[in-house]
């Protein structure tokens, strides 16, 4: 076998002389967008090809980094399938890691080790019973992915993990990626967690069954703190050996993270990169927004504190792990990610890696490699923002918890469905071709809101007093809000207030009454034009539910009608319940919909409801970009570089054949685009289909034509 110390020294020498040596000012993971491959060889295929051949095949598809599976886990991880030297290995296998890393480095591929820290073989768990996570009823968890168990980060298992880290870091690797760790909806109540909780907080751990109130807030804080402790200690092990080994985990999703304790804002401090499964698509894709990866990237940008972001995308349609999405869907996943300033990661099996569809990813990899300078150091130019509230997701009765691969824990109530509320409003903004950012609770409490002309609050029901006060100040100083349903009616622990915290801003007071479900009922416009432009009908479909409110100084633009006994029960009379209010507050304007407008849009996509949001955008935050006659399936993202001297207009075309997965995108021809600008334009050119565009100057704007758009194009405007 030779001397492993000598081997490691020689590998380190090769690594230091490699052409991808470290920039003096930046860590390697900060230098350019990452094109990461995870070839899922951990299901018994670690050594299925020679190291040199495998590295060459990955480089040929233009990947510059990877998550390397070096531990077998066909039914969960154990200590039998390590293909590297480890002091805790239960069996000595081939040292494939030692052979592979130099081959990858020679081809410009950074090697980050994939380390699963949430799914373990049941037999391995039986060998270490005190490592396992425990349910509230005292039973160890035994159904992870239906076949495995999971271990607790507060127990003695953590020392086993740290030894594996030391063994891995003895090689000249570039990073370590944790898949996990997570808690589960009814874990962990092992004796180590109970002891740690008593020491930190006193008393016994409360139940996770009721996720609201101060007791649950304390439990969530405990689990997030435990997660942070585990990441901190892992990071210290890694960085003490080599500070240039990147470290990060599979982060929190846009959903209720109370079950898993993966709160990105709290955990980013111990990570070098922030990543999330924004590109995992599963089930009925007609119910999955095509903008999912891009919106996730926007949220990660808000949460990452300036650190790089990665969107994890699966090439398969879940729950089928060994399948492949059509090439058009793969290109759209890729485009939505890079347009919103995130790096890409694609996970696939070796059988998928050789399929024709992979050419789509390879082409996008090559494009990004050749044009990486247009994706570095960019800034969003959006003047509209929509809020995703983690607080509401974790404490509100209408919020799902999301686990792994889009597995859901059902909300305690479907009234006020938070995911649907966010998706509906976001979809309306997206279809209005208005660039937008995604903010969170920390943004509302601490960050500059003044750069936005309008902020949309899709049922941000749980809101701290601090957030409410800052939004009040924002509107008082001239900002605009668009709020729906129960926004600000609950505090940050999910406890219902007597009235909206933003009652004075909304121009409405809450009652204790909820109306609905409105299955075939209507709303009546009270005027025409303005915010009701294009809504000329006498009757508009009602939202599914609405809060009964009392207006206070606001104008009622739309009124709910009296409920009908049946769908053919005659013309409904007006009720006293407002459906849309407009209110001046200070220098700003607030539009408030007491109904669950977002959830209703998500369910039915009615033109009248989309029109309400579109009109609000046009009034409160008119887009800097106008595209004549384009379908609403064309997405617009506007970013800038070099202090605004370069604008980057990303166009993503998801115009398919009225179903998903999208087999073929319908090209768009001769897009006439107007861009508002206060600076003279020197040059306009495109990147995907390289070409120079003729600029036509007009007062306060520039006009040009994009001849043809397939899935994706970038228009570069030099000013």
Secondary structure blueprint with pairings:
Layout: H1 4-17, E1 35-39, H2 51-60, E2 65-69, H3 96-106, E3 110-116, E4 120-121, H4 122-127, E5 148-149, H5 157-169, E6 175-179, H6 191-201, H7 213-241, E7 246-249, H8 264-267, E8 274-282, H9 292-303, E9 309-318, H10 327-339, E10 343-348, H11 350-353, H12 358-370, E11 379-380, E12 384-387, H13 390-395, E13 401-402, E14 408-409, H14 418-431, E15 436-439, H15 441-446, E16 454-457, H16 465-476, E17 480-484, H17 503-506, E18 508-515, E19 522-525, E20 540-541, E21 546-551, E22 555-561, E23 574-585, E24 588-593, H18 597-604, H19 607-620, E25 625-627, E26 634-641, E27 646-653, E28 668-676, E29 683-686, E30 691-692, E31 696-698, E32 701-709, E33 712-718
Parallel strand pairs: 1-2, 1-10, 2-3, 3-6, 6-7, 8-9, 9-10, 12-15, 12-16, 16-17, 17-24
Antiparallel strand pairs: 4-5, 11-26, 13-14, 18-21, 19-20, 19-22, 22-23, 23-24, 25-28, 26-27, 27-33, 28-32, 29-30, 29-33, 31-32
Helix pairs in contact: 1-3, 2-3, 5-7, 9-10, 10-12, 14-18, 14-19
